[in-house]
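Let us work through a complete example step by step.
Step 1: write down the sequence.
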Amino acid sequence: MTDGTDVLVLGGAGVDTIVYVPELPLPYADSYMIDSGIRTRAGQTGDFVAVGLSALGLRTHHLDLLGDDPEGDLVRALHRERGIALTAVPQPAGTKRAVNLVGPDGRRLSLYDTSRGHTDDRFPEPTLRALAGASRHAHVAITHPCAQALPILREAGVTLSTDLHDWDGENPYHEPFAHEADVVFLSATALSDPERTMRRIAERGRAEVVVATAGAEGAYLLADGEPTRIPAVRPPAPVVDSNGAGDAFAAAFLFGRLSGEPPLRCALYGAVAGAYACTVPSTQTDAIGREELLGRVAELESAGL
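Step 2: predict the structure and record it as tokens.
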């Protein structure tokens, strides 16, 4: 393994305010009393992937735009505490933020503040080229301005992955990410036919592997043109929140891929990490470690999964 960075994570840094609600959808009322408290913590998709990769021992560097504000301070502190390198480009509009309403079953409704950026925002090209050139792989969030960075990353020769989240297979915003990445993750939530969408991604782009996660139903894997259904893994503790499960899946899958494992085993890594993430409360930012991941995978393989 050469000196440098294993994975450059691009975009997706921000904070979430977590509100546990009695049910989703939340019926209209003038007010609700939230006995569990309302908490704000650092951790959006890029942060979760970076934390997951780092917990598995991969050298990780996170690049994004951050504001000079309390929210940005939370993101900086998270990376500092976890020993994750962070390059924060100043963002005058402020740090990305969202409100997550979390139901008793762990499902969530996210409200994203889209005012924390401008259409002409860009990553400084020299910084982006230098970081990409020192990295084995880049994982690209779909937050702005990551789409504009894709050609530069390609020119740098780094392999790419992305997470399209709840893409419906039609929204054109997601297409540059879907077609430029070598590994594409997405949620099956909005897909009526996941395999059809996965095949279209592979046919129209350069993806070698496409994974659609389906929560308690497992995941769909398309590798080398062959579809495989990945069964769900039983979480090690009660499920409290699904937030970050897809990011955990992606991080563990990439850990396997960068370790030279075949796609099917990478997907098992992802399933184990995603199940673990569902046991972590929304108010925390945590990820499975390498030893626990490999131990759990060994148990499942010995049981014939």
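Step 3: interpret the result. The mean pLDDT is 94.
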